[in-house]
């Protein structure tokens, strides 16, 4: 076990990463996440990614009941000493939130796909969210005309797909609260 030094930052080697290591990472424009001690570096997102995430957050916030809150990244979901993720959009119980992070599973986690994150979002993060008990997980794809795939935990604690819509199709969610989302409308800000 050792430490690799890069400029002013020391990065541990030979052992899994911890949240304490994550807090020491440089402020270099990347987001750093941990899943079971594995470091994931996420480059700054592009315009279509940000447009879709922000538009969804606005839609969710407009329909959100008072006992829940909608937050956007960067905001940490830290459920273990070796796991901290920052979903693009979360819906959490007000009573679960702290000023610093969310130390419990959100009721909804949303990831917006990009070339650099799609593999993790579809696999590693989906499995992590399932394991920690995130009741609803949505994947948004900003590639024209836009798409939304929704998963919900079943009685056995496994995700099952409950919806997939593209473009102008409507997704009518019941969980975590009733809301209708049209993927193409989440991309309207990209057009003049």
UniProtKB/TrEMBL annotation:
Any one Pfam family match given in the protein's UniProt record, by short name: Uma2
One term of GO molecular function: endonuclease activity
UniProtKB keywords: Endonuclease, Hydrolase, Nuclease
InterPro entries: Nuclease_put_TT1808, Restrct_endonuc-II-like, Uma2
Tagged with keyword Nuclease: yes
Keyword NADP in record: no
Domain of life: Bacteria
Domain spans labelled Putative restriction endonuclease: 20-178
Name of this protein: Uma2 family endonuclease
Upper classification of the organism: Bacteria, Bacillati, Actinomycetota, Actinomycetes, Pseudonocardiales
